[in-house]
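Q: A reviewer asked whether we had any structural model of the full assembly, not just the individual parts. We don't, so I'm hoping you can provide one. Inputs are below.
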Amino acid sequence: MKHIAEHKDNAESIIEHAGFSFLYIRNLSPIPVEEVQYHSAVIIEVKNYDFVRLMVSSIRANLSPDIYLKPIFLLKKDTYDDAVMDELADGSIKGLDELDLVVPTVERISTRVQDLTFTNSISFEAQIITKLITLLYTKEQKTVDPFPYVYSNIGYYYPLLSVNFQRTEETVALDILKIAEEEGILRSDYYDRVYLCSSCSSNHLSYREVCPKCSSSNTTPDDIVHHFPCGYVGPMQDFKNEIDDKLDCPKCNKRLKHIGVDYDKPSVIHDCNNCHHKFQDYHVNAKCLSCLSDKSVETLKPTEIKSYRLTKKGELAAIKGFVTTTKDIDEVIGTIKYDTFKTMLKYEIERLKQTEGQSNICAINISNSSQVYSKLGSDLQRGLLKDLVSVIRSNIRSSDVIAFESSSTIVMSMNAIPNKIAKKIIGEMVSLLNDLIKTSFEDLDVLFDTKVVALDYAKTHEAHLKELITDFS
Amino acid sequence: MDELLDNYIRFLATLTPAYFVELFWFYFVFEFVRYFLLEFIVLNLAKIRAVFNKPHKEDARRRLFMENPLVSILIPGKNEGKHLFKLVNSLGEQTYKNIEIIVVCDGSDDDTPIIGRSLEKAGLIDMFIRNEVRGGKASAANTALRFAKGKYIIHLDADCSYDNDAMEKILIPFFEDERVGGVGGNVSVRNYKESLVTTLQGVEYFNTITTGRTVTSYLGIYRIISGAFGAFRADVIDQLKGWDIGPGLDGDITVKIRKKGYKIKFAQDANCLTSVPNTFRKLIKQRLRWDKSLVRFRMRKHKDVLMPTASFKMLDFFSAFENIMYNVVLNFKWYVYLLIMLSFYRPLFLNIFITNILLYTATNFVKFIVYSLYREKAHASMSYFLIYLPCMVFYFGIYLRVVRTVAYIQELFFKKSYQDPWNPRKTSVHAKHLGI
Ligand SMILES: [Zn+2]
Ligand SMILES: [Zn+2]
Ligand SMILES: [Zn+2]
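A: Here is a predicted structure for the entire assembly that you could use as a starting point for your response.
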């Protein structure tokens, strides 16, 4: 039994089939990606390839497991070849009447998602690794192979991983893989080597032979000719005459007859049309088509591309929850563990029942965290979080506590003050944080969202927390 | 022994001046007059001229540095890579700074291309040209010449080394006299202590180059600018379109510059040190080639100099004539002398032989000591050579003479030089065909 509910103002449709709700995204009808979490699977109509890439990527790049783990099926009528999209999706169908074919996949993924545990890690790397291994687990896949991909900045794309990064930050995927290997989650095999621009890590390079003096590629090669009888040596140009296309020796005026007998061409010389330098050994420069830098190939960064396999430990980490041993930011000075925060919240609610005071919990969320963290790397990320915490610390009372809900969300208590004042303090805090970022991190745009929830002793602490962070996922 | 000495003293007692000339005309006419008396007189004249010329020379030096023309240094050669770094470094020490260095690697089959390229990349060499196929010394020099941009051209050998004022000194003659088209530098033996044969060559180079060329230069008949160290006006050498196929291309280009009406000068104070063959065997090989080239170039290619044609020039004629006279003709004349002495003066032969040796040796000592006063500075101490001087008569008078004879015969009658692997066969074929 098929039921298609058409919405009038947009072309998205919801298809109920075999007990599952399929979100059907038609060509060029973008929907907010948050919509995905309310359905069992997504079907994307393949007509415009850019649109497909955009939709698939925004689902898989989302940080919420409710969204990124969702099964995606491509509805393709004609042949469409994008191996990376196929890897990111979970299958394809030729028409909506083939929905039965994908039902087992949807069932399997929905069941496997139940096995997963998501640990509350504040490390960006740990978060991305968790994304990768949970996706591998639900897709029943054990390899992370590099795909040669024209849309990739570094030439190779690890679909399930690289999708999390903007084009210019793709090398972060390589760092993440390295960490995952050090953690024993993945094992690697050599696959290929790429050479990347030393300024921007792009692989989109144009190689040219250039003048060693001025680096111009505007050069003309000419054969050097040696006339045996008189010993004259010069570029072919010297031997040309104006009347015919024969060659005459400028020294002895004899006509050149037979190569190897009366003359030969012992070498080639290049003439730079820009600076008129003559040379034999041209340099090879690589011009980066991304940042336009033009440098000697020796400056390029050789980078190994490996293919990876999930280890037993990796599989278990998906189910039991992944905690990094080296890269996690367990302790930022001035914070407490999130579990402790929860307990303290519970006690505060109990206290309010008796005293009728006004208390609040607040959250500050970095809404573009994946962009920010991939730009910073783990050390700078840690530095940024430390700075944020110290600013927050100095603006709240010493009896209040701070914790990380996730790598991008900081929660804190603001006890015994009215809700209005708490909101005002949070507002001031954000402007202080913006100032801090402007002075300590160049060219970094960090966007903050805030939320303040007044404590209500009629509700549980869990309900409070849910309300606090619901907007940030 | 006593009897021999007795006999010899009695022989000396019989010698009247007329009888002396009759028995030792060869020594007297050629060695004493040409190589001692004439040279001694000219050395003195040259010394006097140098004293009077001093302000003029200082002015020339001043003008050289004021104009500061670009000078192209050409270093052609095969498998010379191992010498390049040292050479290029020493060129960086030169007092004359406005130079460009062009190295041509003529079909080297060793590491030369790698060394040359890295020196080029490091900016120590301005241009490194690699010819995959060997073309011979002339073609390598011509390749470098074709890309030279300097107003003056200096030709160097990679295995030589140079005083740090050598480039300056070799350029000054161009500013002393604008009719000068080429200047030869002074070449001395660097490895004179290596073996007896190198020591003897040390003395020989001192006699024939340091002294000999000062004399011929003064007389206006200086005829060979060493490939090891020679400077040329770029416009003059461009007119000639460079060097012709060797061996003997150094002498050849000098003659051609003279024919164009330019003067050739020798700069005794522009010092270059070269390594010479360290065994008698290797020396034979080198000299056979040199001596053959004398026949090939003087008597064959440039025989027109000797003919009374429209372009006849007295000095050019005299230069070639003197060269042929004192080398080829004299060489054979010596055998005539030997034959006469053996046939007509046989009883006295031993005494004549001893006297000749004593005469030559005495002359060698006097020349060596006296002439040393005429050179500006020396790299080797004079006293080192003194004990070896008695060997010179055998080295120069017998060993080299025999080698020369063989070379002349080979070349005069068999044109052997065209088979010398020193040139690639492809070029020798054409040279032989053209008679050059
Ligand atoms: Zn770039
Ligand atoms: Zn250029
Ligand atoms: Zn020609």
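A: Points you may want to mention in the reply: Residues A 227, 229-230, 232, 249, 251-252, 254 surround zinc ion (ligand 3) (CB under 6 Å). The first strand of chain B starts at residue 71 and ends at 77.
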